[in-house]
Each structure stands twice: as C-alpha cells, then as structure tokens.
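agent> call fold_tool(seq_1)
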Amino acid sequence: MNVPKRHHFVPEMLQKNFTNDEDGLWTFDSRNAAKGVWSSTYGNLFLEGHLYSLVQPDGTKDVSLESWFSELEGQVAPIVQKIMSTARRGKLPCLSGQERQIWDFFFYQQWRRVPDLFASLLTPEQHRIEVENLLDVLVRSGRPVSNQERSDLLEPASLKRMHKNLRVATLKTGSRTVLDVIAGRGIAIGRLLHPRKSFVLGSRPVVKLTLPGITHLSDPRVEMWLPIASDVIVGMGSIDSPELLVPVSAAQARNQNEASAMQSSQIVGRSKPLIQSLSPLVGRKVQFTPVAEFPQVPSCG
C-alpha cells in the first residue's frame, strides 16, 4: 500500500485560494528567519512528514488519521467554494443542514489539528516532566520501575514517539460540547472589499479574539476567524442569525493578519510586501515546532 508521508496540516485546497498571479505563495518562517521572505508552492508548505501517523514501537505507522482528514477536506472543499463565490457576489451561501455540519466540524478540526497549537499546550520538555511524574506515581503505588525501564522510556527517541502519538490520539477524539457551541452560533462571512488588501494564512490559521476575562465560545463577544481566501474570511457569528455577511475594512484585515502572524511560526500570502511587513511579528507567541523532516518537491520548471 502507498503510505502517504507528506501530511498537510493546512490543506492545499485552502492554500490555493491565497496564491498570486504566478500560482505561487510568498512565505516567511520564523524558525528560519535568516532566509527572509521567499516564494514557494502550496504543495511544499504547511506540512510535516508523518505528522498524523501513529508510530508503533517497531517503527510501523498507522496513517488512518491522515486518510480521515483527507476525506474531510474532500467533503468541505465544495462548501468552501460555495462560500467564496456567494460572498464575492454579495450573497449568503444558505448552507444546508448537512453542509453546515461539515463546515463546523472542519472549522473545529482546523483549529486544533495544527502543530503550533499542540506545541503551545504541551512542549516536549513539559511532556518529559509528565512522563517522569507518572513513573514516580507508579513507584509510589507499589509498582517498581527498574532503572532500565526508566532509561528506555526517557530516551529521546521514545519520548519523541510518545509525544507524537499523544497528539495523534488527542485528534482522534473530540469535544461534543465545543461542537455544540459552534453549531449554536451562526457563521459570519467577511468579504475584504479593498482590492489592494489581502488576508494571509498562518500555520495556526484559526484566530481567536477575546476580551480580558471573556474566553468562552458561547459568549458572542468571543470571535474566531479562519481565512479561506485572500479576500474571504469565515468565523463564528451571532446566536440569533444563522448566516451573516459583513464587510471587512483594511484596518480589520490588518488586525486579523497581525494576530495570525503572532500565533503562527509561518505565514503565507499572495503579496510579498504584506508578508515582509508582518515578518517581524511572526512566531512571537508560539513554541516553535520542528521544520519538516524531508526534502521539498521541486516546482515545475
């Protein structure tokens, strides 16, 4: 069986909506800041080798989660196109119940599936401390842990595999409560009308905007936004309106882009000057995640 190795955590079908006239993307990666702003393609961005693979002790890999994400992306792709096309005509998409359910699930997963978010919740160092604490708990409960067992479990390769598998296991489960809250609020669709402005896409693309002390998703003052194109953004709307179309000013777009840049280790977009202007902000609020561990596919000549 052909096992997929290159796992995109921001789908190519989204990245395509941010390309420039040459079908490329300008990007800046704070983990390799010395490289500056450079051009690439959506096939080579926002991916890691076997990111969603469950790694067994013998090295074999279960890629069912990546296949599941691919199926979800296939289901949501026509919905994304529908939202974009109607928004550009100044119309609401009038999603069916099934379309809205698929969108909500995709939105939820896109929020939680990215490495930058997971790194902010549990760093490798924090994970090592947790494993050490669990071993100590076992000893106190009467289950002896030999020096060899402790050494094997705390060996860097074992810790890396366990940390990775924890992420995969977490993504295989979900919160029905969070999904119900998302479903209980309408969707807001923002259209950026200024022809010379654009949204960027971050490696942590869903931006949550809150007021001090107000963080629960059920509060209408809490906003969450996901850009789906350089000129269209979708977020959680009001409780009493299933769909809402709102204009987005240049200042609002800048605020969104800055928030996305600060929480992301890498950003992409259609405009080189825009990426350059945001580059000093990229990665300010993230725990860095590893750079992809495989060569990039060369662009067509």
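agent> call fold_tool(seq_2)
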Amino acid sequence: MRTLLLCSSFLLCGCSHMANDAWTGQDKAQHFISSAILSAAGNEYAQHQGNSQDRSAVYGLMFSVSLGAGKELWDSRPSGSGWSWKDFAWDVAGATTGYAVWQMAHQ
C-alpha cells in the first residue's frame, strides 16, 4: 500500500497542468454516478469470483478509484483539460457511496 501511494504521488507531481474548475456542475455528477456504478460493479464481480466480502470491497473501491485517477491523468496531458482534484474528490465520494449501497443490498 505504501508503494502504491508513493508511486501515485510521483505520477501526480508530473501533471502538465491543473484544471481551473468549480466544485459543482454536470461533470461532477457524472464523476460521482459513474464511480458509484463502477464501485458496485467491481464489488459484485469480485463477489461472483468467490472473494470474501472484505476482499470484494477492496477490489470494487480500488477499481473505481483507479479508473478515476486514470481519467484525471489522461486529462493532465498538454492537450487535455487539466488534472482536477475536485473531479477526483467526486470520484472517491462516488466510489464509497457505490460501496455503501452495494453493502446495504447484500445484508
């Protein structure tokens, strides 16, 4: 886990430019909803593969958050819209909401 965090911080330091965006807007809702769906789908997939509930949760959350980070890394290209911590925060919020909803549906 420490290695993942260290590698992530090195990747983020190399972003070519940052986005100048607001905390609200249609794209923020899209980030939230898509991350929630991806997290729940990742949880369900891992559960069907025979993983425990805890392992499924980790798989679903990391699947969703890593796709959100990948999208922001793509946006940080010189021709992209720029890395947005606000978009990434909505991705993480959506991923945790998707996990919570998935957990409630399986109890």
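agent> summarizing second result for user.
The radius of gyration is 15 Å. The mean pLDDT is 85.
agent> awaiting next instruction.
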